[in-house]
Amino acid sequence: MVKESLVIDEIKKHSIKLNSNDDLNSLVEAAGEAEFVLLGEASHGTSEFYSFRAEITKRLIKEKGFSIIGVEGDWPSCFTINRFIKGERNGTAANALQDFNRWPTWMWANKEVESLISWLKEYNDQSNGNVGFYGIDVYSLWESMEEMVRQLQKISPRSAEKARQAFECFEPFDRRPENYGISAAFYEEDCVEEIIALLTEIRTKKHKLDKLGDETALNLEVNGMVTLNAERYYRAMVEGGPDDWNIRDTHMVSAIEAVKKSYGNSSKVIVWEHNTHIGDARATDMKAEGLVNVGQLLREKYGQQAVFAVGFGTHHGSVIASSRWGDPLKIMEVPKAAKGSWEDLMNRAGAYNKILMFNPKKDTVFNHTFGHRAIGVVYNPEVELLGNYVPSRMAQRYDAFVYLDKTTALNPLSVANAYT
Fold it and tell me: Are strands 369-373 and 36-39 parallel, antiparallel or unpaired?
């Protein structure tokens, strides 16, 4: 076990004070050389995580030629944002964010994201840019199928009929994934045949779709991918084990790759996800549990130099989360970090915001294992010591770390059906 005093001294020696956006220069320069920049967060409800990621994102777009933003959100809802910032949909950023009406709405329907979306719209308008905003998660099974039906009705009645048949197969489950998962896992009553028939039909139309010159083909491709992988995910979720997590993160990588391919091989991608997705799983206890994640998969496939992962964390403050899955959001206290945790050591090295750049070959101290706090959409501060700290070798998990000493809760927008 490395001495805490040694770790604190090394943090003091190598960290950069983060007093203003200008202090992000070294981070932006280092990240800008990568093909994929992964921006994490230690919670889904912290304002500063969103604000600093937004600033980094803007600079990577303006200064380093990044054109794709992939986020831990549903493809259909994010595609509404994508159309808005590309001038294909009227209204305001707040209007476009109303599509995020399924719990947990606050993750994307918030003022911090609204500000970024407005900036992206203005940037595309003024520079004739093609920056896009895409959801890479797997949860939107029903919404993705509805979108496929709508799109195919405009192109091919026969294909639309295939989509309706697949959609009808899922209808008896009342949009409750757990109902479908139980039926598929234990009673062998599933919709796999209908999904495969639909995806086969879409593939036969690919040449025709590509000629449209817009993102219709991409929209159908990824919604089809969501449908297939969501079916697998919900089945695996009921069966237990690591498969559901691995299906989800593997899908996220596939969605990123589909978008990147549509932009061209030289395109560069920014990804916004929780630290548990973007920080290399091999540097945590996830590996022993048979879990992989986006950060690991991208590094393995494209090489260490092509991927730049930035972790985020805080010592204390407040956060938006819920007490149970599906419950109304609350502003909760984030207590001071546990003694000896990574966040505690960062605080003891100086109670101010800072950036730490890692070099795993040289930073041997940071290759030791530390507890690293992770807060999800469901959170109970009173028992966080029992499950909210992930054992992590920080210099192997991330390329850089943004530490924000005291943080505040996200600012949600009012969205219809927000708590259903």
Answer: unpaired
Which tokens in the block code for residue 134?
């895409």
Helix axes 141-155, 157-170, angle to 10 degrees: 160
Report the pLDDT value the prediction gives residue 186, as an integer from 0 to 100.
84
Q: In the numeric block, which tokens belong to residue 304?
A: 């260490």
Candidate from 53-62, 133-142, 214-223 with smallest mean pLDDT: 214-223
Two tokens, residue 335? 């207590």
Tell me how far apart the alpha carbons of residues 313 and 349 are, in angstroms, rounded to a whole number.
14
**Which has the closest alpha carbon to 413: 120, 135, 98?**
98
Domain 4-135+268-407: CATH architecture, name and number where available: 3-Layer(aba) Sandwich (3.40)
pLDDT one-digit tens code per residue, 222-280: 999 999 999 999 999 888 889 999 999 999 999 999 999 999 989 999 999 999 999 99
Copy the structure tokens of residue 184.
């598929």
Share of the chain above pLDDT 90, in %: 77
Torsion, Cα of 301, 302, 304, 310 (10° steps)? -100
Report H helices in 187-287: 192-204, 206-210, 216-239, 243-263, 275-278
Q: How many angstroms separate the CA atoms of 225 and 156, rounded?
A: 19
Strand partners, 402: 312, 355
| Token duo for residue 94 | 């707040």
Residue type (1 letter), 383 = V
Name the CA radius of gyration of the chain, rounded: 21
Pairwise CA distance, residues 92 & 117, whole Å: 9
**Beta strands, E only, 33-179:** 36-39, 68-71, 132-135
> DSSP state, 336?
P
The pair of structure tokens assigned to 202 is 């879409």
pLDDT at 385: 86
As given in the structure block, the two tokens for residue 187 are 């009673």
Q: Is the pLDDT of residue 417 over 70?
A: no
